[in-house]
Amino acid sequence: MEIFKQTNFDFLGRKWPFIGLSLLLTAAGLISLAVKGGPRYGIDFTGGAQMDVAFIQRPHVEAIRSAMHSKIPGEIQVQEVSGTQEVLIQTGLRDESALAHSRADMVSALNNAFNANGGGKLDINTASAPDLADRLRDPLAKAGVVLSEDQLQRITSAITNFRDKQRSGLLRTVDELSGVSGVSAQILTVLRQETYPGNFTVRTVEIVGPRIGSDLRQQAINTVLIALAAMLVYIAFRFEWIYGVAAVIAVFHDTIITIGLFSLFNKQIDLTVIAALLTLVGLDE
Fold this sequence. Notes:
Low-confidence stretches: none
Helix content: 55-70%
Number of helices: 11
Mean pLDDT: 80
Oligomer: single chain
Order of helices and strands: HEHEHEEHHEHHHEEHHEH
Strand content: 5-15%
Strand order of the largest sheet: 3-4-2-7
Number of domains: 3
CATH class of the largest domain: Alpha Beta
CATH architecture of the largest domain: 2-Layer Sandwich
Largest sheet: 4 strands, antiparallel
CATH topology of the largest domain: Alpha-Beta Plaits
Distance between the termini: 29 Å
C-alpha cells in the first residue's frame, strides 16, 4: 500500500523560510527568557502545593485566586482544566512549616468563599469517612438509630465510596445517598440535618518541599546534560566527531525553542516538560 505517491520533495530548496522561522522562534524565546529572568519552574522544581479541585459550578478564576490570597501569601496560580469544571490551584509557598498546613488552608479559603451557606454542617463532599462517622455518631444515637461502631464505619465508608466512585466526588444533594446500602430513611434524615453538599471537592493534592524541588531541578538539568554528552560520544564513535557536535547543536536548538516558548507564553516547566526534552534528545539521536 503506497500512501505517498510523490516522495521527491525538495527540502533544501525551501530551507530559507524554515531557517528564518527557526531563528525567529529562537530569538523570541531567548528574549523572553532574558526579560523574565529565566524559565518559570513548576512546583516540581521550586516547591509549593498544587490542588486539583472540581466544582459543581466553577467560579471565575479571579474569584478563586482572590479567595486563596485571603489565606495564603505569595503567588497563586489558578488554571482551568479545559472541558471540565476543574481547576488546578498552585501556591508558591517556600516555607516547610507553611507547606505542612497548606492543604487545610486552601480548603478553608475555598469553604469561606464558596460554601458560606453550610450553617455549621459538615461538607459531605470534602469529608472523609472517619470525619463523617464522628459527626453522625451522637446525632444518630439521639435519633434512636442503634448502630455498632463497626456498622457505623461500614455505612460511612459506603457513603464516601458512593460519592467518589458513582458521583465523581461530588454530590448535588444529600438525597442521592438514599440508594446506598445501609442508609435507611432515619439515617438519611440525620444526614440532611448534619451535612450539606458543598460546591467543590478536592481530587488530588501535591506538596513538594523547597529542598526536594531544588534537588529535582538539579537532577533534571544533570540528566539532560548527560543525555547530550552520551549522544555526542556515541555519534563521534559511530560516525564522526563533527556529526556528534552537529547533533548536540540541533538538540540545543530544539530545547531552547521549547523552553523559550514556555517562557513566552508564561507556562511553567515541570517534570513532564523535562521528559519531553529528553524525548527530543532521543529522537535527534
